[in-house]
Specification:
Length: 173
């Protein structure tokens, strides 16, 4: 995360890396999700935990590491009310130590995405999707998991709008 960016009010899950877009601070996931929505439509749903994550980087890393070690399932504030209305679900998450953050597991285990197409997108440090597509398939065995997800280095997200739009075009939605 850039050290000169004030993260006040930024949710730690979507704010693991920051993008400045038209003078607005967005997390990498939020930035990509907004581009997806602007180009294919749909509703945005933000996975948020009941307990806020710390904004201080080292404390956040420590908590996230502990959650992964314990296979925690943090309680979410809400689940989508009308997920049955959608055939295609884009799901974005950062890659934390080769895995999804634990709140994403809570989300995937709490909704039925049977017969829906799940298209993942994932900013990462170096691991791309790692084993997360397999994990999603195991949690949602009756869903169709797109193998044409979007993965990008977290360092490149701010300049990726054209790449994201090109990827969406290739999906032929």
């Amino acid at each position: 995360m850039p050290e000169d960016v004030n993260t006040d009010g930024v949710n730690a899950i979507t704010g693991t890396s920051i993008v400045m877009s038209e003078e607005e601070k967005l997390g990498n996931i939020q930035y990509i999700a907004q581009i997806i929505q602007q180009n294919v439509g749909g509703e945005l749903f933000r996975i948020e935990t009941v307990q806020d994550y710390p904004l201080e980087h080292d404390t956040l890393v420590e908590q996230a590491s502990e959650e992964q070690h314990n296979q925690a399932r943090p309680e979410l504030k809400a689940f989508p009310e009308n997920i049955e209305d959608y055939d295609t679900i884009f799901i974005g998450y950062p890659n934390w130590w080769g895995d999804m953050p634990m709140p994403v597991y809570t989300f995937l285990e709490g909704v039925d995405l049977s017969e829906k197409t799940i298209i993942p997108f994932c900013p990462h440090g170096e691991s791309r999707f790692a084993n997360t597509l397999k994990s999603i398939s195991q949690i949602q065995p009756n869903a169709i998991i797109s193998q044409n997800g979007f993965t990008i280095s977290r360092e490149d997200v701010a300049d990726a709008e054209n790449n994201i739009i090109s990827w969406l075009h290739d999906l032929s939605l």
